[in-house]
Amino acid sequence: MNRIRIHVLPTNRGRLTPLPRLQEPQACSFTHRPCSQPRLEGQDYCLKHILEDKNAPYKPCSYVSSKTGRRCTAPAPKPDKRDT
Question: KANL2-like probable zinc-finger domain location, by residue (predicted)?
């Protein structure tokens, strides 16, 4: 007996439509090596690399450890001009 095979293409009927993805935050613009950290809001760099942007409202932290004498490498917010 010969069997007839029928190939049925899948349809979207009965399936849930995929929800649109929320826009993922853009990655850091650091150029020396790839950085996949999200950018700070309104900036081009992540928190680790924000000091690369001279126009960013951050400055190097001024804390120096009394035990090791090493400087803190974290960025610190610049005070507003009107705060001084």
Answer: 28-83
- Give 79's contacts (C-beta < 8 A, 6+ positions apart): none
CA distance readout (Å), 27 to 44, 81, 82: 8, 30, 32
Q: Where are the domains of the chain?
A: 25-78
Distance of CA 22 to the CA centre of its chain: 14
CA distance 62 to 71: 7
pLDDT tens sequence across 45-55: 999 999 999 99
pLDDT digits (tens, 9 = 90+) for 1-43: 677 777 767 666 666 666 665 555 689 999 999 999 999 999 9
CA distance 70 to 57: 23
